[in-house]
Amino acid sequence: xxxxxxxxxxxxxxxxxxxxxxxxxxxxxxxxxxxxxxxxxxxxxxxxxxxxxxxxxxxxxx
Length: 62
What we know:
Blueprint: H1 17-26, H2 32-39, H3 41-45, E1 47-50, E2 53-56
Antiparallel strand pairs: 1-2
């Protein structure tokens, strides 16, 4: 499970990732460390860069 992006738009303003982390811990049972990994590491693992452009991976990374 991954949190929302950090790009920001009217219904999800930029800078709400701390709120996402809190939800992951309180509502979904993640430890604080797991929530931080979901907010940082896992999103990067879900994309690959080819020819200077990001592409979605075909499968999940464990």
